[in-house]
C-alpha cells in the first residue's frame, strides 16, 4: 500500500479494506463466458451468413468452398460421396469446410421456425461432438468451434423468441433438453481433457449453463425471455440499458444502469471448478486461455 | 502524462474489430482488478461481479457503436465501473448501521470479527461521502497501489491537480471518520 501522506490512524482505517476474499472462480468463469458470448452477439461481422470457413488454416470464401467441393465431387465420383465423406470431418481436417457448408445449406432450406431450430440444435450437437473428438485426440478445440456453437444456440433462441407464447414454451423445452445433454457431455469431457483444453471446455460449459437458465426462465416468463434475447441475454431487464459511453470522448455514461440480474444460481450443477492461476491477478494470461479469477491482497495491485 | 501502454493500444485496436482473443485478453487482464475495486467499495461479491459484468458489457456496447476509448483502456474501464457503483449507491444506499457481508475471516475471535466488519462498513460509508474523484484517488492510490500519473490518466486531470485532490480527499476522509466517531460515542 502506498502510505504517502497517511497518518497511522487513517492507515489503520484503510487497512480494514485491504484484504479481499478470493474471487469465486465459478462466478468469475461465468462472467467471462457471458462477456465472450456477448462479444459474439455484439460482433457485427459474426452473423451466421458472414462466417468464413477455414481451410488449411486460411479463411476462404463460399465460392472457393463450392469449387473445392466440386473438385472433390469429381475426385470421389459424385457430390453425394463428398458430402458423405465430410460428415465426420473435424475442424482440423480439409473436408470440415464442406461439412459446415452443407449444414448451412440445410439450415437455409428449413421451411419453418421449428425446423430451423431443430437443425440449429443438431448443429450445436455436432459442435459438442467435435469438441469431444478433438479432446480425445489430445488436441485443444479451436476458439472458432466455441464461437460457432454459441452462434447456433443464439440463433435458435432468437428464432424461438419470435414464436407465440405457447409454441415458444414448447420449443424452449426441446432446446433445454438438448442443451442439458450437451452440458452433461461437456462435464464428462472435462474429466478426461488435458489441462490445455480445460479453459475452452469450462467456458463452453458455463455458456451452456447460462443458456439453460435462460430457457428455464423463458418457459415461465416468455416476455422476459424476449426482452433478454433482444438485449443480448441480459435477463430480467425491462428496458434496453444505456449504451455506455455517451460523452464526446467516449465518456462513460453515469445514467443509472439497469440491473443486470443474471448472476449466479442457475441450478444446473456446480459448474466448472477452475482455480486461480498461480500468478494471481497480475499475470497476463495467453489470450483466450487465461484464468478468469484473481484475488486481491496487499501491495501494488495492478494488472 | 502521455505514457500509452503499447500492449493496451494493440489490444484495443484488435478489440475494436471484435477480435475475440483480444477481448478475452482484455477481460483476463482487467477483470480481477475491477473486481477488487468493486469489492472494496461495495463489500459484496455478487454486486462486485455484477459491476464487472456491467462494465465489460458497456465496453462492448461502446465498441459496437464505434465509440469507447482510443487509449487508456484501463482508466476507461475503471471510470465505467465507478459510475456503475455510484449509480448503485444512488438507487439503493446501504444503511449506515448495516454490518454488511463478510469480507474476510482472518480475525481471531468473534468479537474481533464483529469489530472488523463494523469498521469496514463505517469506512465504506465514509468513502461514499467523498466526491467520486476523491473516492477514486483514495481507493486506487492507497488500496490498489496506483501511482499519481495513472490516476491522473483516469481522472483526465494534471498530476498536480490529482495531488491536490488527494490531499483534500485524505483531509475529508479523516474529518468524516472523526465526526462519525464523535457521533457514535
Q: What ranges of chain B have pLDDT less than 50 throughout 5 or more consecutive residues?
A: none
Within the largest sheet of chain A, what's the order of strands?
1-2
> How many extended strands of chain A?
2
Indicate the proportion of strand residues of chain B: under 5%
Question: Secondary-structure element sequence of chain B?
Answer: HHHHHHHH
Distance between the termini of chain A: 15 Å
Q: What keywords describe this structure?
A:
heterodimer; A: 303 residues; mainly alpha; two-stranded antiparallel sheet; B: 185 residues; globular
What does this structure look like?
The complex is a heterodimer of chains A (303) and B (185). Chain A has ten helices and two strands, in the order H-H-E-E-H-H-H-H-H-H-H-H. With 303 residues, chain A is an all-alpha fold. Chain A has a two-stranded antiparallel sheet with strand order 1-2. In chain A, helix 2 (25-42) crosses helix 9 (198-220), helix 6 (113-136) runs parallel beside helix 8 and helix 7 (143-161) runs antiparallel to helix 8. The radius of gyration of chain A is 23 Å and the shape is globular. The two termini of chain A are 15 Å apart. With 185 residues, chain B is mainly alpha-helical. The chains are: A mainly alpha (303), B mainly alpha (185). At the A-B interface, helix 1 and helix 2 of A face helix 2, helix 3, helix 4, helix 5 and helix 6 of B.
Amino acid at each position: 500500500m502506498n502510505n504517502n501522506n497517511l497518518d497511522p490512524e487513517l492507515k489503520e482505517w484503510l487497512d480494514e479494506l485491504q484484504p479481499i476474499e478470493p474471487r469465486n472462480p465459478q462466478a468469475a468463469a461465468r462472467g467471462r463466458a457471458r462477456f465472450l458470448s456477448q462479444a459474439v452477439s455484439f460482433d457485427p461481422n459474426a452473423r451466421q451468413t458472414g462466417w468464413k470457413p477455414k481451410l488449411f488454416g486460411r479463411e476462404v470464401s463460399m465460392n472457393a468452398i463450392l469449387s473445392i467441393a466440386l473438385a472433390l465431387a469429381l475426385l470421389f465420383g459424385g457430390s453425394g460421396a463428398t458430402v458423405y465423406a465430410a460428415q465426420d470431418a473435424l475442424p482440423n481436417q480439409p473436408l470440415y469446410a464442406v461439412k459446415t457448408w452443407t449444414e448451412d445449406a440445410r439450415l437455409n432450406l428449413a421451411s419453418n421456425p421449428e425446423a430451423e431450430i431443430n437443425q440449429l440444435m443438431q448443429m450445436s450437437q455436432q459442435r459438442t461432438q467435435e469438441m469431444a473428438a478433438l479432446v480425445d485426440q489430445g488436441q485443444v478445440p479451436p476458439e472458432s468451434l466455441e464461437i460457432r456453437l454459441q452462434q447456433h444456440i443464439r440463433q435458435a433462441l432468437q428464432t424461438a423468441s419470435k414464436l407465440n407464447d405457447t409454441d415458444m414454451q414448447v420449443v424452449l423445452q426441446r432446446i433445454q433438453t438438448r442443451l442439458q445433454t450437451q452440458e452433461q457431455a461437456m462435464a464428462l469431457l472435462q474429466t478426461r481433457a488435458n489441462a490445455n483444453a480445460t479453459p475452452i471446455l469450462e467456458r463452453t460449459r458455463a455458456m451452456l449453463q447460462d443458456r439453460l437458465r435462460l430457457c428455464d426462465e423463458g418457459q415461465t416468463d416468455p416476455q422476459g425471455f424476449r426482452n433478454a434475447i433482444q438485449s443480448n441475454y441480459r435477463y430480467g431487464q425491462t428496458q434496453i440499458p444505456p449504451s455506455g459511453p455517451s460523452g464526446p470522448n467516449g465518456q462513460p455514461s453515469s445514467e443509472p444502469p439497469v440491473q443486470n440480474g443474471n448472476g449466479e444460481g442457475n441450478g444446473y450443477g456446480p459448474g466448472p471448478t477452475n482455480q486461480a492461476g498461480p500468478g494471481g491477478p497480475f499475470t497476463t494470461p495467453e489470450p483466450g486461455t487465461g484464468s478468469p479469477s484473481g484475488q486481491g491482497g496487499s501491495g501494488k495491485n495492478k494488472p | 502524462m502521455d505514457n500509452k501502454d503499447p500492449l493496451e493500444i494493440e489490444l484495443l485496436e484488435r478489440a475494436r474489430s471484435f477480435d475475440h482473443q483480444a477481448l478475452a485478453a482484455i477481460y483476463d487482464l482487467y477483470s480481477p482488478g475491477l473486481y477488487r475495486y468493486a469489492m472494496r467499495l461495495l463489500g459484496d461479491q455478487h454486486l462486485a461481479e455484477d459491476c464487472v459484468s456491467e462494465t465489460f458489457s458497456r465496453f462492448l456496447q461502446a465498441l459496437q457503436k464505434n465509440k469507447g476509448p482510443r487509449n487508456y483502456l484501463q482508466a476507461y474501464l475503471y471510470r465505467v465501473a465507478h459510475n456503475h457503483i455510484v449509480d448503485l449507491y444512488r438507487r439503493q444506499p446501504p444503511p449506515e448501521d448495516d454490518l454488511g457481508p463478510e469480507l474476510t475471516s482472518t480475525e481471531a475471535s468473534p468479537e474481533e470479527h464483529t469489530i472488523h466488519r463494523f469498521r469496514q462498513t463505517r469506512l465504506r460509508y465514509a468513502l461514499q461521502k467523498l466526491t467520486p474523484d476523491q473516492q477514486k484517488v483514495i481507493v486506487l492510490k492507497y488500496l490498489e497501489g496506483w501511482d499519481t500519473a495513472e490516476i491522473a490518466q483516469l481522472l483526465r486531470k494534471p498530476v498536480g491537480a490529482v495531488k491536490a485532490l488527494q490531499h483534500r480527499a485524505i483531509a475529508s476522509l479523516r474529518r468524516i471518520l472523526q465526526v462519525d466517531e464523535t457521533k457514535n460515542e
